[in-house]
């Protein structure tokens, strides 16, 4: 424990970080919100009228990827033979320009195993849109557009409004409720290397 290490190795009367106070943002932490599977289902049904937007939110929910990672996905990042989505890039809009760069951290470069529903929806979408080249962005929308669609879907479905990032928490919550170990999910918020 922290106390044992502090006393045994450093002989400190207390943790020096307590005197430093909280490091980081001065803003109060927002409550972590998430959707239950039933709430996500209601939300997704409300946005089915826009297939690209429906697929974007389905991908966020079923893969646990970050918003920037989703917006940087290209068809060539999806391997239907190995059943994985390769996260290798992240999207940002900087000074009006689309910028594709590396993901948030080195560990963010990963392969995410696709649930069968997501695999089939992605395959169907790509097969009906042959104009999308392997190196094109699969979701050529902005974060602002996704946020607008999130608001629209919440209003239509009546589900509580959460941040787009909170869909990652919804993903993890759904995995835990499906029997995945919270300890394994702590080190890997996607089921890529996890056996239930």
Can you put this structure into words, describing what you see?
With 196 residues, the chain is mainly alpha-helical. It is 45% helix and 10% strand. The protein has helices spanning 2-10, 16-20, 37-46, 51-63, 67-72, 116-127, 143-157, 166-177, 182-187, and strands spanning 78-79, 84-87, 90-94, 97-101, 110-113. A three-stranded antiparallel β-sheet has the order 1-2-5, with no helix packed on it. A two-stranded antiparallel ribbon has the order 3-4. A hairpin with a 4-residue loop joins strand 1 (78-79) and strand 2. Helix 4 (51-63) runs antiparallel to helix 6 (116-127) and helix 4 packs across helix 8 (166-177). Mean pLDDT is 83; it is low at 189-196.
Write the layout of secondary structure elements.
Elements: H1 2-10, H2 16-20, H3 37-46, H4 51-63, H5 67-72, E1 78-79, E2 84-87, E3 90-94, E4 97-101, E5 110-113, H6 116-127, H7 143-157, H8 166-177, H9 182-187
Antiparallel strand pairs: 1-2, 2-5, 3-4
Helix pairs in contact: 3-7, 4-6, 4-8
